[in-house]
Design a protein that fits this description.
This protein has about 375 residues and is of the alpha+beta class. The chain has eleven helices and twelve strands. The chain is about 30% helix and about 15% strand. It starts with 9 loop residues before the first helix and ends in a 20-residue tail after the last strand.
Length: about 375
């Protein structure tokens, strides 16, 4: 069972469906998913190395001392995706009563920390002996060296299963928000050639996929109004035909960029598709209705909505006050009405620490 890019991301599909109550023989599927995650001959490249030391290393190309490099093992990015997969495997194993497997994969899910260099606050490649690869410039567009079609800036946010852990690693909410703010504002001016880097907002690359979840991460760090502002900006500026006749600012890659638009336009997005949580953004529609497939519907109403009134001031779910910038699938599975009152200025709605979405690391 192979999948694209680095790992065996198929587990996201199965665990996500399992959490949403979609009937399937998940125990049978799990056996194949487990093989993906443990067999060195399976779809995870360099799995033996990852299993032994907790990260996938890279080598500095001989005779080419200057970054960025095109070739390599994409070791840092692989480590992040493998850890994300492992977290999903742990959650699925737990649900199937496989406690020993759950412990194994939960431990491996922390491996993202092995490629996080706390001295500089970035994910960074390592050589086989454990040394940090140098020189390293997070603004350079590494293609397969350390990263995968992305810079160090873009790759930093690829920890969807443990956003709180990344917040802690970056010094708490203030440090995390400062880093995320810089990500979306630092001018993009690499010395190397960036393949597939289009649709830029600062260092953010909407035209490729490694960092498309980043605008929604402010929901964890107490500034969801910045998610509301960014998603509206992306929906407005980075989609739609222009003189070149392109509808996207980059590639769609199996529907990733188009589904980003569809869900963000409705006002929510699954940062981690293996979870059952949706992060609230800022809907462009005054009212939308989604048929749930079980005879029920999710209705989303945005009162006072406009291009200027893009900030959520308050919310109710099924008539009750709703202070969280996210909701679970179970909150809407039997039908629901989410009402968002919009306004022209940011508000404190959704910013309380106790209202942040779940994460592998607790608050």
């Amino acid at each position: 069972m192979n999948t694209s890019f680095h790992a065996d991301n198929a587990v996201f599909l199965y665990l996500g469906a399992m959490r949403r109550g979609i009937p399937f023989d998940y125990a049978a599927a799990y056996e194949f998913l487990r093989r993906n995650a443990t067999d060195p001959k399976g779809p995870r490249d360099f799995l033996a190395e990852y299993d032994k030391q907790g990260w996938v290393s890279d080598e500095v190309p001989a005779g080419n001392p200057s970054p960025p490099y095109a070739g390599g093992k994409a070791g840092a990015a692989k480590t992040l995706e493998y850890a994300w997969d492992d977290h999903a495997m742990a959650e699925m194993a737990e649900r199937l009563g496989k406690s020993e497997d759950a412990r194994l994969f939960r431990k491996r899910a922390t491996n993202w920390r092995n490629v996080f260099d706390s001295s500089i606050g970035f994910v960074r490649g390592r050589t086989a002996d454990g040394k940090w690869i140098a020189p390293f410039d997070p603004a350079e567009p590494y293609y397969n060296f350390m990263m995968k079609e992305a810079s160090g800036w873009s790759t930093l946010w690829l920890v969807p299963h443990d956003v709180q852990g990344l917040i802690d690693a970056l010094g708490g909410r203030a440090g995390f928000n400062a880093k995320l703010d810089e990500f979306f504002s630092k001018p993009y001016n690499p010395t190397g050639i960036c393949r597939d880097c289009t649709g830029m907002i600062g260092q953010y690359v909407h035209g490729n996929q490694p960092d498309q979840q980043a605008p929604f991460l402010y929901a964890w760090s107490g500034q969801p109004w910045k998610t509301q502002e960014l998603t509206r900006r992306i929906l407005s500026d980075l989609y739609g035909s222009d003189a070149s006749s392109y509808g996207y600012s980059g590639m769609d890659d199996q529907g990733a960029t188009s589904s980003w638009y569809a869900m963000a336009a409705l006002g929510f997005y699954p940062v981690d598709p293996s979870s059952d949580e949706y992060i609230i953004g800022s809907p462009i529609f005054d009212r939308s209705v989604l048929r749930m497939g079980n005879g029920k519907a999710l209705e989303i109403v945005a009162r006072n909505n406009s291009a200027k009134n893009l900030y959520i001031q308050s919310a109710t779910l099924n008539g009750r006050p709703w202070s969280k910038p996210w909701f679970r699938h179970s909150d809407i599975a039997d039908g629901a009405k989410l009402v968002l009152t919009m306004g022209p200025k940011p508000s404190a709605w959704g910013s309380a620490p106790g209202d942040a979405p779940p994460s592998m690391s607790r608050h």
